[in-house]
Amino acid sequence: MFTFSSEQDSVSRRCVWVNGPVIVGAGPSGLAVGACLREQGVPFVVIERSDCIASLWQKRTYDRLKLHLPKKFCQLPKFPFPNHFPEYPTKRQFIEYLELYAKHFDINPQFNECVQSAKYDETCGVWRVKTSSPNGFEVEYISQWLVVATGENAERVVPEIEGLKEFGGEVIHACDYKSGKNYKGKKVVVVGCGNSGMEVSLDLSNHGAQPSIVCRSSVHVLPREICGKSTFELAMLMMKWLPLWLVDKILLILAWFILGNIENYGLKRPSIGPLELKNKHGKTPVLDIGALEKIRSGKVKVVPGIKKFSCGTVELVTGEKLEIDSVVLATGYCSNVPYWLQESEFFSNNGFPKAQIPNNWKGKSGLYAIGFTRKGLAGASADAINIAQDIGKVYKEDLKQKKQKVPTHRRCISTF
Fold this sequence. Notes:
One of its GO terms (molecular function) is N,N-dimethylaniline monooxygenase activity. By secondary structure, the chain is α/β, with parallel strands linked by helices.
């Protein structure tokens, strides 16, 4: 990596040539592709807008969070979890694992650099990635390859709900929720009945709050384990021999025996099976870890959609009004790619690749995407291996033929 500056503004702006790819994002996806590139002998630069790796996990998750899948389905390439870690590692343990991963593969991101724009220069055949830091410093990275590793959950989604601004009480997104210890005795509405909404409701109830969870649409709830075996692992095993529709039917029958009919508690199941729904629409089924028992006992109340908020109250679509103290928006996240990537052929307006799996990791002109498969860490790991192998072939061929072109400048500041 070579660094240059301009005559006029050498303090606040510089230009960096990167011999390998620029990776945007230092979450699990960015670390995974960095590790695989390291194994290929390909240099790279990782850009991260926060001051740490895996900022979503470190700064935007609740305290009680654990991995919902067994650790063997969540480990990144080339480096398994430590043997002493439990089957479902805690938030702190997963962060520790990622820190060990980055150290093992000598991945040192450029922290506190937020990408403002990334654009392919047709004339020069390179990507130009412009970043800025909180102190006003600007950097332009120039590279033959760009790896988008910001993933599916880069920005919080905050829905427009009538009267929410006039509510008067505390309103937070789930990414700002840490624990229910400060909500004891309070009436809290949790908007969203996915895995986060269910787990936040469970945590609130465990801390003596009175949560109501808004279930506006249908949702699949499955036990996390069936007969001591991970439901996800069981599903993957069955799919080796059975068609998806049959696996879905078996899972729903088993869930009915273990959990009962969830529609008795105000939770309506979708018309299509959990695996089909995940594949078609990316909607993950809820893996129950205790919230359903709280719902059965009445300690967590299920309510339908919200019509509007007013001062200290919420009116439901049924006309019922509830007096509440706080609101937690478990309304999910979205991609932020459209805000900075100036490209429209590979990525769609929603920030996801247009191509279908398994071809959604590679675009044109050295553009790659990782972590957009809606298949979690296992999907990101598969992307990382594919991307590193693809870039590695070209990089090694360039070295072999001695055709790698490195810009020169009489004012070379430093070389990395």
